[in-house]
Amino acid sequence: MSIQHRIIQLIGSVMTVKKTVAPSKLLVEDLGFDSIMMVELMGAVEDEFDVIITVDEASRIKTVQHLLDAVDERLPAPRQAA
């Protein structure tokens, strides 16, 4: 399962009203996230991917794509076959 698919599933599990989730969607304005939902989402993402997203970084995450980028930046690079 891709990182994007896993993150979209996590977003869907936190949302109280089901809406279409896409990378361009704004978490607050389009998907209805409030501060409590954002904290819950960041915790779920950290648990799922074993990464740490600081409060400062979380405050800059506005879209689904921003969240995808933040996770991708924190994941180890895939190893190249020798």
What would you say this structure looks like, in words?
It contains four helices and no strands. The chain is mainly alpha-helical and 82 residues long. The protein has one domain: Orthogonal Bundle (Non-ribosomal Peptide Synthetase Peptidyl Carrier Protein, Chain A). The two termini are 25 Å apart. The mean pLDDT is 93.
- Series of secondary-structure elements, N-terminal to C-terminal: HHHH
**What's the main sheet like?**
none
Quaternary structure state of the chains depicted: single chain
Name the CATH homologous superfamily.
ACP-like
Average pLDDT score: 93
Name of the CATH class = Mainly Alpha
Binned, the helix content reads 40-55%
Instruction: Determine the number of helices (DSSP H or I, runs of at least 4 residues).
Output: 4
Radius of gyration computed on alpha carbons? 13 Å
Which shape, going by the Cα principal axes?
A: globular
- Total beta strand runs: 0
Q: What percentage of amino acids are in beta strands?
A: under 5%
Look at the helices and sheets and give the structural class. Answer: mainly alpha
Q: Residue ranges: pLDDT <50 for 5 or more in a row?
A: none
Distance between the termini: 25 Å
Number of domains: 1
CATH architectural grouping: Orthogonal Bundle
Quick summary:
By secondary structure, the protein is an all-alpha fold.
Architecture blueprint of SSEs:
Layout: H1 3-14, H2 35-49, H3 55-60, H4 64-74
What characteristics describe this protein?
82 residues; mainly alpha; Non-ribosomal Peptide Synthetase Peptidyl Carrier Protein, Chain A
